[in-house]
Design goal:
CATH topology: PH-domain like
Shape: globular
Number of domains: 1
Distance between the termini: 25 Å
Oligomer: single chain
Radius of gyration: 13 Å
Number of helices: 1
CATH superfamily: Pleckstrin-homology domain (PH domain)/Phosphotyrosine-binding domain (PTB)
Largest sheet: 7 strands, antiparallel
Length: 106
Amino acid sequence: MAEAEFSARGVRIDRWPRSLTRAGEVRIEDGRLALLTSYGSEIDSAPVSRVRAGRPWFARVDEAVATVNGTRYRLTLGDDHEGGGDGDPEESGRFLAALKRAAGRR
C-alpha cells in the first residue's frame, strides 16, 4: 500500500449543524479523500476529482470546508479546537494543496 499523500489526525469534523467527531482523521490516499472518526470508521469518502474544498472568507485560518458526495463538512485542522484561538493555518493550507495535487489541479 502506498504512503498517504496527506494525513491529519485530531481533526474536528462537523456536518452542519452538529459535530461528528472532535478527533477524526482526514486522509488523501490513492486518489481518494476519506474522512474518518477517531475509531477509524469512515464518515464519508470520494475520489479527489469529485471533492470541492476551500477556505471561505468567514472561516478561521485553521478551518477548511469540503463538499464530499454533496455533503458539506467543516474541517478544523489546527490544534486549538475548543479555545477559540486560531490554530495552525499551515495544516489547512497543506490539506488544500494536497487535494489539488492529488486531483491534478495545479
